[in-house]
Amino acid sequence: MPSGAESVHERICQWIEQSYRPQQPDQQVLVLSPSACCHLTALRYVRAGFDVGDGLAYAGYSEQPCAIISSFTTFFEDQPTFRTGALLFRFAPGDGGGAAGFQVLLVSAWVDDEDVNANMLAIACVPSRALPAWLKFEKECTRIANSAIPFRGRVYVMGGAEATFDATVNWDDIYLPARLKDDILQDVDSFFKKGVAIYRRLNIKPFRKLLFAGVPGTGKTMLCSAIAKWGQAQGYFVVYVSGSNRYGAKFWKIHEALDMAASSEAPTIVLVEELDSYLEEDSRAQMLNVLDGTESPENKFGTLLIATTNHPEAIDTRVLKRPGRLDRIFIIPEMNSEDDAGRMLQNYLGDSWREEHRGIIPALVGKPGAFIRETALYALTLAAYQNYDHLPLKLLRDSLRALEDQIEAKDDFLTAHRKTELGLHAVRKPKKRQNGLLLED
Ligand SMILES: Nc1ncnc2c1ncn2[C@@H]1O[C@H](COP(=O)(O)OP(=O)(O)O)[C@@H](O)[C@H]1O
Ligand SMILES: [Mg+2]
After folding, report:
1. Is 303 helix (H, G, I), strand (E, B) or coil?
2. Is residue 235 situated within a structural domain?
3. How many CB atoms are located within 10 Å of the residue 128 CB?
4. How remote is the CA of residue 228 from the centroid of ligand 1, in Å?
5. Which CATH number covers residue 405?
6. Distance of CA 9 to CAs 2, 37, 74, 150, 335, Å?
7. Which residues sit opposite 210 in a β-bridge?
8. What is the CB < 6 Å shell around ligand 1?
9. 271 assigned to some structural domain
10. Which domain holds residue 242?
11. Each residue of 147-200: pLDDT tens digit?
């Protein structure tokens, strides 16, 4: 057993030299491998039979005893990730025969690092002749580990407090003009089914960008969630870029999501909510390049970026006006027909719905969907609190009036303070948020 004073990598190398290398028939080299090679979930998705060149194919791995590194596994979202200790990888001639098979021993351990708290160190002992094959295998492991392929069944969250979530909104739950909904779905569907092939034929990166713009509460977040659910049903990979972890809304998160899309080897939908909050001065130039596609790698299966904003005026006109940076802008309107407003109200009132409630519908036209929902919920709460066995129209009217008054009071308050330069106008463009709280710059 080597002494404790030596570094972990020294101890691993000595152990390999003493207890593994002498039994190997071929000449061996030691290489520093990427941590993806001991990422158990990534390994689960490396195909058996993966071609590593020279007629050789990956034939699986087994866990090996290791006298110097104890073995343990780290988990993320119920899935195993990094395993410390020794793994033995086997490569064998493929169906058509080929060069003689070989094996690779990989030993991995966590080591302290000054910058990151801990770092994965993985050292492989590879037959010299098989080095190109091993490097190809390493690359495949890295691709899978970076692509979140293991999380494809759920929406992968980039930069959020949670790593994944289930999209639950149905397309039919959204009350918007039928033509608008059809238009959006057709745009998304036709891009993946037909557009991608056309872009590629024209030698253009298959990267399309849509923007949903509208006042708060019109259903933009719902649309994103419904598209996520629809995309997953098609087998597409869906990444949701979130500003909710401690780093806030940072442009590099969008960049990383696009990288991930490229390595996923699947049609990918990238959702970015409140795009305006990602546009800090210092990332504007980068933003323009990324949206142009010049700074993002190509996903040959197609990447569709869908962004939302409540403040389109905050988005650079160079982004808004130049074709190719945002391909299409959909304006998501307030409830603009009695028909939609009525169906939505009926939906939120459920069993409490009565014919007399129709009287309030005209007053709901022109309001965002969230407003109609609030009117219904508050009225139902009032009715229950006052022990009614039904919901009188009057309570719906009271609820509507209370909400209108509140919004009016808030508008007056904000306008007044904007005039006095108290800086409250900053609420229009929150920049840094953590768990919904505004942070100081
Ligand atoms: N068009 C709509 N159809 C159905 N419900 C809506 C609609 N718009 C808003 N809502 C309701 O209001 C809530 C907030 O809407 P949201 O999608 O977050 O709005 P936005 O992202 O545009 O600000 C939703 O969860 C939903 O309950
Ligand atoms: Mg929203």
Report:
1. strand
2. yes
3. 9
4. 15
5. 1.10.8
6. 11, 17, 20, 30, 64
7. 306, 328
8. 174-176, 214, 216-222, 344, 369-370, 373
9. yes
10. 155-331
11. 767 777 789 888 888 778 889 999 999 999 999 999 999 999 999 999 999 999
For residue 180, the ligand closest to its alpha carbon is 1
CA distances from 197 to 203, 296, 326, 440 (A): 10, 19, 20, 46
Most confident of 153-157, 207-211, 247-251: 207-211
User: Residue type for 382, please?
Assistant: L
CA distances, 380 to each of 345, 356, 375, 391 (Å): 12, 15, 9, 7
Give 341 Cα–ligand 1 centroid separation in angstroms: 13
Residue 188 and residue 122: Cα distance in Å, rounded?
Answer: 42
Which tokens sit at 402? 């209370």
Q: What is the DSSP letter of 39?
A: B
Q: Which amino acid would we find at residue 432? A: K
Question: CA angle, 386 as apex, 381 and 390 as ends, to 5°?
Answer: 75
Chosen domain end from 147, 175, 196: 147
Can you read off the two tokens belonging to residue 36? 């993806």
Residue whose CB lies within 8 A of the most ligand 1 atoms, among 173, 184, 218, 372, for a mutation test:
218
Strands 237-241 and 268-272, bridge-based pairing: parallel
Within a domain: 132: yes
> Looking at 288, 310, 331, which one is the last position of a domain?
331
Copy the structure tokens of residue 277. Answer: 């909050």
How many percent of the chain have pLDDT more than 70?
90
